[in-house]
């Protein structure tokens, strides 16, 4: 191999094979430098863990924190600047960061602010307990004061009511997540309970958390079966905005979009009732049976305070359930701890089943059961969703917070007369059938819709205190007396009470008409054989005519709203036919069936109705145009329109009648069976 010499002044580095002497000296120098470097370097176990278990057992690093440490190796002997030798030290910047100082070991551990709040009851370090508090500013301390140390959550009154209960909340991570969402809903400056701090809490908090969620579930009405976790916000019922204030006095041929649909208030009311009808709950969460008799999916409707035996003498509970026979929803009223001793008493329910009145909640059947773990008597009534009692409407603390007084009266006289007419009509029907109500009491009268009341729990007292009908005249007289006491409570609340009847009558004389006073005095008079509900009906005769007139007017309003949705039903059927025909991938072994023949005309009409654009190329979203075209198509008018293809190469002039015939023909082809 030819050799060459490096020119003088060249930057090339000559590569020379090292001698054996240099190799031995190099190894010795590296070993000495490594030993000297490890003795001045701080042990990493001491920095990370605070101690080193190998100290004095062979660990060569420095364990004395008072001695300064360095990570840079000792300087090696200088090499000639003119040459780059393999023995040159590794290049390191002059501003090299030194190792961690010994003071960091005594520094308090870093804990985020939200974790401090969550673990405020946990053990604190001796050095960090006083230093951590100074990180709170005034705003943080205010939020921290809102925190419930026992519940590990913010107070229940500030937590949104869509946090639902679960069957067994034992997962601390889920609790931490629920607390975080609750705090975020409060805009509490991102104060949340972290999962790590949640794990440091005692296990006894899990029980309190479970009860906390259970209390929230009693208030919330959006709990569905087999759903454990957080549910979304309530549904938005308004599908369309309310009419604008400046749109008024339209011409007869002009209509707003709201004229094609029922009113927003009525739609919302109906949808809320449908939603309440579909509500379910996990039976095991409330210790309810999965099924009793032919009814399943029990859902509690009353709170514990409302189930006390104030009227019937026994604790009662009310549930919504679904019947397996007809699939309808019924209301079950359970009499707890009642043992039926006379089976003949069940025959009284047959007499009540014949009562069909607009102001009486119809009873379906009654049966005994042990499904609840005791002897219970269950009455089955019709279910009226979102109904409330007269007590909750006019006498509860919530109703006093939002009074609707007219001329200083808690209840207007017109509304009182409406109640009188409806209750009197129900009592008249019941007494004429040889029965007595015996439950004319504010908590047993339901308000099911707009000023529509119904007598509830009829027939229960007849079965509980069965006497074969011997005391029927006495019970009917009690009905009239209870009716009068109810009217005094409605007219005088909260100005007077039944405990001072004279003051109540004086108040009624000053605030209401003499006719109302006379009706109340007659009902409160002493019982006598000649006192009957027929006399009351005769006294309120003129008011009954007004009530009938109001009922007919409201019926006309509902029919008008129904006619709007009736027209929409026709349009929905048309849209369904469009969906069956347009863009069908294949029919009768023809992949291009929807693009040929009459179906192509239907496709162009679909584009004419829904896919129009303006002069700027923007989509035309005009509901009135859609409704007008669909109504003309459903009627099959002879008005002609021009349909243009998407490539603007073909143009067709057809009438709505011809398009309707094409749709009917195509739909018949799809409906036929070979």
UniProtKB/TrEMBL annotation:
Residues 37-66 form the C3H1-type domain. Keywords: ATP-binding, Coiled coil, Cytoplasm, Metal-binding, mRNA processing, Nucleotide-binding, Zinc, Zinc-finger. Gene3D superfamilies: 1.10.287.3700, 1.20.5.5160, 6.10.250.3160, Transferase(Phosphotransferase) domain 1. Transmembrane segments: none annotated. Residues 301-544 form the Protein kinase domain. Residues 65-97, 114-133 are annotated as: Disordered. GO terms for biological process: mRNA processing; nuclear-transcribed mRNA poly(A) tail shortening. The keyword Zinc-finger applies. ATP binds at residues 333, 382-389, 443-444. Residues 581-674 are annotated as: Knob domain. It is found in: Cytoplasm. GO terms for molecular function: ATP binding; poly(A) binding; protein kinase activity; zinc ion binding. Regulatory subunit of the poly(A)-nuclease (PAN) deadenylation complex, one of two cytoplasmic mRNA deadenylases involved in mRNA turnover. PAN specifically shortens poly(A) tails of RNA and the activity is stimulated by poly(A)-binding protein PAB1. PAN deadenylation is followed by rapid degradation of the shortened mRNA tails by the CCR4-NOT complex. Deadenylated mRNAs are then degraded by two alternative mechanisms, namely exosome-mediated 3'-5' exonucleolytic degradation, or deadenlyation-dependent mRNA decaping and subsequent 5'-3' exonucleolytic degradation by XRN1. HAMAP family: PAN3. Belongs to the protein kinase superfamily. PAN3 family. This is PAN2-PAN3 deadenylation complex subunit PAN3. It comes from Paraglomus brasilianum.
